[in-house]
Amino acid sequence: PNVWTSFQAGRLDGAKAREISAAVDRLERRASIARLDRQVVAYAETHTVAEVRRWLKAFIARVEADLFNDRAEAARADRGVDVTHGDGGMSWVNAYLPSLAAPAIDKRLTKAAKAFGADDARTLAQRRADLLAAWMTTNESGEPAVNADIAVILYASTLAGADQLP
Q1: How many angstroms separate the CA atoms of 30 and 104, rounded?
Q2: How does pLDDT run along the chain (166 residues), one tens digit per residue?
Q3: How many other C-beta atoms can be found within 10 angstroms of the C-beta atom of residue 69?
Q4: Is the pTM of this model over 0.70?
Q5: CB hemisphere CA count around 52 (13 angstroms)
Q6: From start to end of 72-140, where are the E strands?
Q7: Beta-ladder partners of 111
């Protein structure tokens, strides 16, 4: 109720209210939710969304500490990789990984990408993406680890040279 009242009064913006709502969803005990409602508004009114998000994580870990390991195991069970195909021949690869692995991957990608030096015309982000793609599609010997069959679909009129449709 305190969060809702503060949101309605304009003392909390939508982003902070959304973070608090997500925290409520993670809490399992009514007493914990009531405690959050009593404490969070004073903090959230004077801090950024990122600071509120960190505070909420710490609050949940502290208030329901006995459930922390259960939550961690449940999150770990949800790990996985998703590929979403986009436009322009590009796709997103999203990986939900343990927090210990993600920074190590980030550090390795950045270190290897910077090693190309200033003469490489690609941005750091482009080099990181190219490295990840190369690492995931080659084996330890640098040979292709992926076999692909390529099919090309085009209009018969384009094949005959009558037009230049895609």
Answers
A1: 38
A2: 999 999 999 999 999 999 999 999 999 999 999 999 999 999 999 999 999 999 999 999 999 999 999 999 999 999 999 999 999 999 999 999 999 999 999 999 999 999 999 899 999 999 999 999 999 988 888 788 777 778 888 899 999 999 988 7
A3: 9
A4: no
A5: 25
A6: 80-85, 91-96
A7: none
